[in-house]
Amino acid sequence: MGIVPAEGGKIQIHSYKHNGHIHRIWEETTVLKGTQNLMIAANDRTMVTESDGRTWITREPAICYFHSKYWFNVIGMLREDGVYYYCNISSPFTYDSGALKYIDYDLDIKVFPDMTFNLLDEDEYERHRKEMNYPDAIDSILKMNVDYLIYMIRQRKGPFSAEFIDSWYERFLTYR
């Protein structure tokens, strides 16, 4: 991963499953910060294509946080009643040919504006773990990252800090 995209540039986001099949593509996302280890990007009303070809348009501005050391990514969605976070347990990201890519490992955490949260899709994770033969090492890495993510949420660290979404959203507006 030598090349990083320019700030203000547009990329796609490609989500895959462990078996290599494409899961979801976000059409156009603006890079706000791009380094080897960290990608912060934003989109609003961008087209999303599902693996079965269906498409939909996102409803609100979102700030996306990807890190090369963490097995998760965080999407902060700015809604009328506050910021909702959707956290995907996933492989660390790579950047290749104009697209940020990661493997989605089913487990998700939804965080509400009051910072309460729910762990979602544990049944789907168990099913896919068997179907796609997730190695035990990956299983334990993912579970450690769920714990770390919950710690970050509770401590309001990183993308969960009070000013994170606001300051990156302000930056996003300068590119629109």
TrEMBL record:
SUPFAM superfamilies, sorted: FomD-like
Main EC class the enzyme belongs to: hydrolase
TM helices/strands, residue ranges: none
Named cofactor requirement(s): Mg(2+)
GO molecular function: magnesium ion binding; nucleoside diphosphate phosphatase activity; ribonucleoside triphosphate phosphatase activity
Binding site for Mg(2+) 1: N88, D104, D108
Pfam families hit by this protein: DUF402
Enzyme Commission code(s) on record: 3.6.1.15, 3.6.1.6
Record keyword Lipid metabolism present: no
Keywords: Hydrolase, Magnesium, Metal-binding
Keyword Aminoacyl-tRNA synthetase listed: no
UniProt catalytic activity: a ribonucleoside 5'-triphosphate + H2O = a ribonucleoside 5'-diphosphate + phosphate + H(+); a ribonucleoside 5'-diphosphate + H2O = a ribonucleoside 5'-phosphate + phosphate + H(+)
Matching InterPro entries: DUF402 (IPR007295), FomD-like_sf (IPR035930), Ntdp-like (IPR050212), SA1684 (IPR016882)
Domain DUF402 residue range list: 19-157
Catalytic residues (UniProt): R24
Binding site for Mg(2+) 2: D106, D108, D121, E124
PANTHER family from the UniProt entry: PTHR39159, UPF0374 PROTEIN YGAC
HAMAP family: Ntdp
Family label: Belongs to the Ntdp family.
Protein task: Has nucleoside phosphatase activity towards nucleoside triphosphates and nucleoside diphosphates.
Protein name (record): Nucleoside triphosphate/diphosphate phosphatase
Species this chain originates from: Peribacillus muralis
Lineage: Bacteria, Bacillati, Bacillota, Bacilli, Bacillales
